[in-house]
Amino acid sequence: MSIFNGTHYPPPFFLPSGIPGLEESHIWISIPLSMMYMFAILGNSIITHMIHKNPSLHEPQYVFLSMLAATDTGLPASTLPTVLNVFLLNHREIEFHGCPAQMFFIHTLSSLESAILLVVAFDLFMAICNPLCYTVVLTHSRITQMGLAAVARGVVLMAPLPILLKWPPFCKNIILSHSFCFHPDVMKPACGSIRVNIIYGLTLVLCSFGVDSVFIALSYALILKTVLAIVSGEGQLKALNTCVSHIFTVLIFYVPLITLPLMHRIGRYHSPLPHVTMSNIFLFLTPVLNPLVYSIKTKQIRSALRRLVVLKVA
Questions:
Q1: Quick one: DSSP state of residue 13?
Q2: pTM of the predicted model, to two decimals?
Q3: Which among 127, 206, 18 is positioned nearest to 198, based on CA atoms?
Q4: Sign (positive/negative) of CA torsion 171, 177, 179, 183?
Q5: Which of 287, 265, 264, 284 is nearest to 274 (CA)?
Q6: Angstrom distance (rounded) from CA 293 to CA 135
Q7: Residue 174 CB partners (closer than 8 Å, separation 6+)
Q8: Which terminus of the chain, N or C, has less C-beta within 10 A?
């Protein structure tokens, strides 16, 4: 493997990393990784297909769920080539122009997922706190506009990232901490000024994930206030049960998403293992668990899944 030690502007390639100290076991680690990729892509694809094919699931909450599942299909698909190249084929070079392209898709899809989680929280807020206006506010045209706005925001905000990556020179070994291209990680080997990249990266976090998380927290606070005001204990339990899967989905997405950039910016570790562990959680936790959570907690999804299985068997 060639290591780049000179100053280059931009570098010819980057070197994604596997799990340090377990290089000889990468071929075995690739087996569970491949299974998780298969489950994430297949599980979310099935949910998207079921909602699309079942007219009874063409309600706003299920349309938003299909958007979430489609995003959870794209996120692992965008990292699959480099991750399996490292673990399965032991091929660690990624050409420079391929790295910013992968980085763009990872960050754009993450921003899109954050926006969809926000509209899911808004959908739940309208259903519980203002049910009389639910169908008036959440029309099909407005749902389409929300989806297009989420995509447009992600593309517009993340498009400058690959461009900014071409400015600074790289004069260190361009070995990444992860098996995929992640913006804070890719900027570490740069020896020129990366102040613009840091400021823009912080702006992205605040304008997308920061704003979304604040409004999501506000939505659930108002939902909780409304639920606690319900006189019937059974009504409270039913409403809280509806919220559980949504809150769990938000947590499994935002906790790794916030922790991973913080580890790169303020964490100091002698071993890269914490970065690798958190990156794998970020990659697989949400796409793998979301189909399970919604299949278990949503009665209509379970029913549609049973009908699909019976139809395929017949």
A1: E
A2: 0.87
A3: 206
A4: negative
A5: 264
A6: 26
A7: 4, 11, 13, 14, 15, 189
A8: C
Distance of CA 18 to the CA centre of its chain: 20
Tokens of 263: 């580890």
Task: Record the tokens describing residue 108, joined without a space.
Answer: 């754009």
The tokens describing 123, both together, are: 């959908």
d(CA 52, CA 111): 23
- Residue with tokens 């569970």, as numbered in its chain: 32
pLDDT digits (tens, 9 = 90+) for 48-88: 888 888 888 888 888 998 999 999 999 989 988 888 888 88
Let me know: does 171 contact 7? Beta carbons within 8 Å.
yes
Helices (H), the chain: 26-53, 60-87, 98-129, 134-137, 140-158, 160-165, 183-186, 195-204, 211-228, 233-266, 273-297, 299-313
Task: Say which residue the tokens 């075995």 belong to.
Answer: 28
Residue 145 C-beta-side C-alpha neighbours within 13 Å: 6
Which of 208, 253, 245 lies closest to 75 in space, CA to CA?
A: 253
